[in-house]
Amino acid sequence: MEWALRATQKERVRILYRRALKDTLNWAVHRHLFYHDADALRERFETNKNVEDIELIDRMIAAGEASYNKWRHPDPYIGI
């Protein structure tokens, strides 16, 4: 049963990372700024990739999702 929870957590982290990375483009419209912000975002995820405690991982994901929702761009750029 633990493997199912781990798979769900991995999926939630992947979705959170992709959403945050895409939203970074809304805040940093120039590529050189985006690359800097994307590196900082990646570093935040990389520092916690070896955490093993399932409950801690759930709390970290929830905190990350809350932070993403708080700082999400209010007027996202929609490209054609």
From TrEMBL:
<keyword id="KW-0679">Respiratory chain</keyword>
<keyword id="KW-0597">Phosphoprotein</keyword>
<comment type="subunit">
    <text>Mammalian complex I is composed of 45 different subunits.</text>
</comment>
<dbReference type="InterPro" id="IPR045292">
    <property type="entry name" value="Complex1_LYR_NDUFB9_LYRM3"/>
</dbReference>
<dbReference type="InterPro" id="IPR033034">
    <property type="entry name" value="NDUFB9"/>
</dbReference>
<feature type="domain" description="Complex 1 LYR protein">
    <location>
        <begin position="12"/>
        <end position="65"/>
    </location>
</feature>
<keyword id="KW-0007">Acetylation</keyword>
<keyword id="KW-0496">Mitochondrion</keyword>
<keyword id="KW-0472">Membrane</keyword>
<protein>
    <recommendedName>
        <fullName>NADH dehydrogenase [ubiquinone] 1 beta subcomplex subunit 9</fullName>
    </recommendedName>
</protein>
<keyword id="KW-0249">Electron transport</keyword>
<dbReference type="Pfam" id="PF05347">
    <property type="entry name" value="Complex1_LYR"/>
</dbReference>
<dbReference type="InterPro" id="IPR008011">
    <property type="entry name" value="Complex1_LYR_dom"/>
</dbReference>
<keyword id="KW-0999">Mitochondrion inner membrane</keyword>
<keyword id="KW-0813">Transport</keyword>
<comment type="function">
    <text>Accessory subunit of the mitochondrial membrane respiratory chain NADH dehydrogenase (Complex I), that is believed to be not involved in catalysis. Complex I functions in the transfer of electrons from NADH to the respiratory chain. The immediate electron acceptor for the enzyme is believed to be ubiquinone.</text>
</comment>
<dbReference type="GO" id="GO:0005743">
    <property type="term" value="C:mitochondrial inner membrane"/>
</dbReference>
<comment type="similarity">
    <text>Belongs to the complex I LYR family.</text>
</comment>
